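Lab notes, practical 5.
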Amino acid sequence: MPLKNLTEPVPRFSCTDGHTAVLVLDVHRFTASPEHGWARMARDRGIIRELAEYYEQLEQVLPNIVRLVDGCRQAGLPAIFTRLVAATPDDVSAQARITGFWTTAGSPEAEFLAAPAPAPGETVVDKTTTSAFAATRLPDMLRARAVHHLIVCGVLAHGAVEHTARDAADRGFGVTIVADACAADTWTSYGFLMTTLVGGLIRTRTTSAVLEMVRGARA
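Output from the prediction step:
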């Protein structure tokens, strides 16, 4: 990536100054259950084998998300969860309407997994846009909480994670993407994204490294 040689290194972000939140993108039954949502759609079309790499990644990613969120909670960081949910068809974005990548509020597919899942009182943002910043209350919520830095994980790596990270950086947020707590539809997509996404205000770290940052043991 030659253009990256023209930019300054990604600045360091403090996770212990009270201005960091963890953002878990679109990890619920619709996206993460092998019986619902994308898996159901793929079975209906006879192409479930094409999602094998995605669900293989999820087996590794979901425990890391649980560990990440638990560690952030213990450190007092707010956790925010998004999901692909709309109250009515009129609330669905044009892109989601065409792809079918959304579900109805109150449906089984809108529910979270047993883990990771929001704890009582934690924020849930329903969206049908790719970026969590598009047409949601997330920007106002972050400003109200004086959040300047986001720890981002979830699915899809080359969808919601990438678009949300780039949107956040454009708005001046520092972004740490937790690489081993994100899943893409193929390993090739995952590898390419994690190589190309870093730069400006966006960096990647592992779950273990981020938890060290949250505990103040690592910058």
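Observations recorded by the TA: Residues 31 and 38 are 6 Å apart (CA to CA). The chain has a mean pLDDT of 95.
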